């Protein structure tokens, strides 16, 4: 299992993000689409300045981007990073799409299947880009329908808020020789109870998003903090092995808690 880092980009400079990617000594770094930075541009800028690691988006939102425009951006990122770019896409959530972009979120699964059907051949067309290969394509998928689309049309899935048991029982059986990339909160700490309480309060609104709520319910979980990897060095290593045994091919660490250096040292 490869280890990557999920970089938080809001309010941060490119120099800060590049320095973090260099110092982490991981296999890959991924960025999300929130506010501020464009994720494809940011990933390509980091990849151009940090050799030897993969860079990707987890995720780029499909609804506001035409497949042709996204394919051109992804292939440009692939060229800028010497074929180390990974394009992760997803439909996001109803509130974000309808309130931020003013678009309908009706039938997101049908939208995603149509979108990927159009996007895939565009990513294969590297005309005018010597030496560039098709970037790896991943889909943010949690439920059975979206996982089926990921299996049919992409190289794998991007997961969040999922335990090792959830991966083994709900995700891995629906994918056939495909990548399973999972983002998880990870913290090495001696104050497990205190940090878990803090994270439970911080991320409580996440469970209010219907896509995540359904996924938590399928796993029998109440709060997303139940998917976090929190403990001392030995505990974190044991949990990482459980994810690998469940079928995760790459774990993207979202560092939580105050002791960032200790957590990154344990990953190394």
TrEMBL record:
InterPro entries: F420-G6PD/mer (IPR050564), Luciferase-like_dom (IPR011251), Luciferase-like_sf (IPR036661)
Domain Luciferase-like positions: 12-250
GO molecular function: oxidoreductase activity, acting on paired donors, with incorporation or reduction of molecular oxygen
Residues passing through the membrane, by range: none
Coiled coil: none
Signal peptide interval: none
Name used for this protein in its record: F420-dependent oxidoreductase-like protein
Organism: Kutzneria kofuensis
Lineage: Bacteria, Bacillati, Actinomycetota, Actinomycetes, Pseudonocardiales
